[in-house]
């Protein structure tokens, strides 16, 4: 199988991984839970392989697209937090539940959002090139949002070591290794060969990440189902409302059709895989938080199947007035 064929079948690969993880975690809950320690290293390799595919030259060109960058930051760090705060008013005053919802909904996705943006006929390259910026800004702003929304109850969460550890292990280290790999590839043939090999890693390691996440957390979801189920309507409402708000933002910043679709996918897809290690490091009294986060992943993956069909055909069609006018400019 060629790499292109693997990438074309990646949705099927992810579905199989989720099915295996669900079945295995339900059949052997104790062993499934023991796989939890593998999530962070596998995720770090996934992020390294994805960062390695970002060409430095294109990265500069992507940031030269000031309108898209401004729209991306606006929708993810102004519009989304306002919507999340409003939706959270519908939840009971239960700090672990609120923390889980805030952690997952306030952080934009930087991994499989690229896949779904491409399938939804958006500009996936713009999203890919923006991942380092999105990661940096969300980690800087997340403690502020938690303090604003949870107050003093979030103060100890923001000051704990897991936040810094996750930032270093899941962001700084993979990004630094990816930069080193690209410099190596420019100077040595061996580096170019290795860089080409890393292009094979995202699909299998995304599948492994999903498998380990679901297998290790499905027991928690069953254990805390009475709490977790309260978050599901919030996740569904978020996925329904966010494309419309992102569409308005895209028009406000006069984005072209493909960039506008990319903005919708970025706004509607959340960073559950990266914030999960933060939740896993919380004390036992907050053990419901990972289950709340993983539940969002399951809801979101189903929602993305609707996104890839509805975003290009309904939400941001070529012949819609905003897109059509911009295409003539």
Portion of residues in beta strands equals under 5%
Straight-line distance between termini: 42 Å
**Tell me, what's the shape?**
globular
How does the helix and strand content classify structurally? mainly alpha
Give the CATH class: Mainly Alpha
Q: Counting H and I runs of at least 4 residues, what is the number of helices?
A: 19
* Count of domains: 1
Q: Roughly how much helix do the residues carry, as a percent range?
A: over 70%
How is this structure best described in words?
The chain has 329 residues and is mainly α. The chain has a single domain, classed as Up-down Bundle (Na+/H+ antiporter like fold). The chain has 19 helices and no strands. It has helices at residues 3-8, 10-27, 29-34, 39-51, 56-64, 66-88, 95-105, 113-119, 124-150, 155-159, 161-187, 189-198, 202-223, 225-228, 232-252, 257-268, 272-280, 288-315, 321-328. The radius of gyration is 19 Å and the shape is globular. The termini are far apart. Residues 323-329 have low confidence and may be disordered.
């Amino acid at each position: 199988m060629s790499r292109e064929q693997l990438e074309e079948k990646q949705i099927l690969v992810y579905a199989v991984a989720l099915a295996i993880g669900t079945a295995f975690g339900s059949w052997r809950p104790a062993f499934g839970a023991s796989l939890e320690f593998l999530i962070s290293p596998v995720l770090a390799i996934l992020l390294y392989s994805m960062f390695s595919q970002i060409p430095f030259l294109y990265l500069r060109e992507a940031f030269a697209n000031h309108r898209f960058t401004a729209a991306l930051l606006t929708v993810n760090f102004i519009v989304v937090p306002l919507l999340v705060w409003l939706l959270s008013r519908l939840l009971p005053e239960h700090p672990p539940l609120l923390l889980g919802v805030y952690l997952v909904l306030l952080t934009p996705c930087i991994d499989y959002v690229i896949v779904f943006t491409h399938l939804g006929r958006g500009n996936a390259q713009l999203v890919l090139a923006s991942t380092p910026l999105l990661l940096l800004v969300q980690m800087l702003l997340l403690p502020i949002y938690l303090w604003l929304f949870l107050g003093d109850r979030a103060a100890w969460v923001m000051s704990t070591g897991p936040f810094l550890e996750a930032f270093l292990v899941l962001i700084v280290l993979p990004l630094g290794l990816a930069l080193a790999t690209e410099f190596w590839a420019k100077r040595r043939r061996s580096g170019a060969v290795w860089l080409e090999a890393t292009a094979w890693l995202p699909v299998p390691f995304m599948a492994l990440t999903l498998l380990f996440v679901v297998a290790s957390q499905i027991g928690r979801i069953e254990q805390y189902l009475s709490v977790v189920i309260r978050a599901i309507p919030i996740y569904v409402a978020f996925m329904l409302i966010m494309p419309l708000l992102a569409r308005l933002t895209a028009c406000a910043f006069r984005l072209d059709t493909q960039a506008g679709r990319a903005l919708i996918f970025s706004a509607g897809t959340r960073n559950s895989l990266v914030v999960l290690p933060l939740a896993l490091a919380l004390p036992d009294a907050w053990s419901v938080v990972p289950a709340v986060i993983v539940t969002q992943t399951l809801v979101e993956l189903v929602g993305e199947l609707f996104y890839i069909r509805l975003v290009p055909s309904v939400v941001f069609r070529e012949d819609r007035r905003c897109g059509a006018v911009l295409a003539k400019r």
